[in-house]
Amino acid sequence: MVRFLIFAAVVSVALTIYTLIECARAERSRIRSSPKPAWFAVIILLPLVGAGLWFLLGRPAASHDAPAQKSMAPDDDEDFLRQLEIWRRQQQREADLKAREQDLTKREEAQKADDAKPAKPEAKEPKPSAEHKNNPEGSDSASPDSE
Asked: What's the rounded mean pLDDT across residues 93-115?
C-alpha cells in the first residue's frame, strides 16, 4: 500500500509540474475560460484536480489553421546542400594545408640535418715528397748517378 502511495505522489508531482510548464508556455490570448494567473493558482492548490481542469477547460485548442511544415529530406534542401559543399571544401583545404605543412617540416628537417653534417673532405692525391719529385717513377730510392 505504501508503494502505491509513493507512486501516486510521484505521478501527481510530475503531472503538476508538466501542467504548470504548459500553462506558462501558452499564450495569454489563447487560454480558455480563465486568465493565466487563475490557472496557476488552480493547478498549484488542487494538484490532480487542477491539472485535469486545465486539460479540459483551460488548455488552448489545437490550431489546425497553422500551415503544416513540409517535411523535406536533407538532400532536397538547397541550403543544406550548399552548407555541405562549403564544409567539404573547407575540409579539403585544411587537409591540403596540413599536407603542405608536413612537407615543409620534412624539408626543413632534412636541410638542418644536411647543415649539421660535417663536410666530407674531398679525396686528394697525396703530395709527392721531395725524393719522389727528383726520382722518376719506377726507380729505386738510389740516384741514377750512383749506378
From this structure: 92
